[in-house]
Amino acid sequence: MSEAQELDQLRQQIDSLDKQIQELINQRAQCAQNVADVKQKYAAPGEKVVFYRPEREAQVLRRVMERNEGPLPGESMARLFREIMSQCLALEEPLQVAYLGPEGTFTQQAAVKHFGHAVNCQGQVSIADVFREVASGAAHYGVVPVENSTEGVVTHTLDSFYDSNLHICGEVTLRIHHHLLIKSDDQEIDRIYSHAQSLGQCRRWLDKNFPANVERIAVNSNAEAARRAAAEEGAAAIAGEAAAELYNLTVRNANIEDRPDNTTRFLIIGRQETGPSGEDKTSIMVSNRHQPGSLYQVLAPFHEAGVNLTRIETRPDPSGTWNYIFFIDFEGHCEDDAASAVLKKLQDIAVDYKVLGSYPRAVL
Length: 364
Hints:
Blueprint: H1 3-42, H2 54-67, H3 74-92, E1 96-100, H4 106-115, E2 120-124, H5 127-136, E3 141-148, E4 152-153, H6 155-160, E5 167-175, E6 179-182, E7 191-195, H7 196-201, H8 203-209, E8 215-219, H9 222-231, E9 235-239, H10 241-246, E10 250-253, E11 263-270, E12 280-287, H11 294-305, E13 309-316, E14 324-331, H12 337-349, E15 352-360
Parallel strand pairs: 1-2, 1-3, 7-8, 7-9
Antiparallel strand pairs: 3-4, 3-11, 5-11, 6-9, 6-10, 12-14, 12-15, 13-14
Helix pairs in contact: 1-3, 2-3, 11-12
């Protein structure tokens, strides 16, 4: 058999498999529509039907990765299924997702990574606006940054939970690569725009490569920085590839972040609580009396129950000077026996506490 004959045979096999895959995807889409019909059929009069179930999607993606036998990596296979699930969900109900914009930000990339491309992403000016859009019902869900592996916590996000009744229903992590963007290769740079977090994540590189007279200017988002760099002479921006493409900028220096493992964690916020998925995290907000041992009193129940903490942050309590709120993330769902026992003890110990949400651990 010649090379041409072997290739032709393999291409025929690929065409046959493509046809089968296409038929199966459409069968899955039909099942998704049937799910929507059943939910609406059994909904009580006036009841708001919930089509997107974060815990269910997390379980499906985990199973995809567990049963994957290659040659595609498990994560790559899960990304393909994420898009299939996104398109199928759009047949049930197109999701409106608010994110910290404008277009071209890392938060938009996180929204697409978590929900897939079949959602309507709505860029917002501030984190407070994202919360407001979701609380008002204008968006089903919101995506906001909460912490970065280099620069730490995003305080505006934590503070927004103080007066909010929204729930955390998911998380997504994104590797962050920053580039120095310019309009043309021969331009002089006298100012650099970026978000404050991004400037911090590239601080050592900037100190080494630019003198003190090159101004560093913090703006609301990296996409806004790119827009200004495209419009102003002498301006550069620190942003990602999406912003470079959107504003037709040149990457002068790539991957300028100080740490190669630079990663940002984002939260998905919504109006509904999320059921257990089997691999969950819970976030709570606790305030205690301003007295010796107050932090110990908060943390002791976790140790006694064998519940692992994944993060703890302290923020000023708006209700009083020198009072503080503890933001705590721990492994498990609030419906789990161990977590439920801890929360019951906190209810007796703390001045106030609020469960911000139990949600699936990031899959991708």
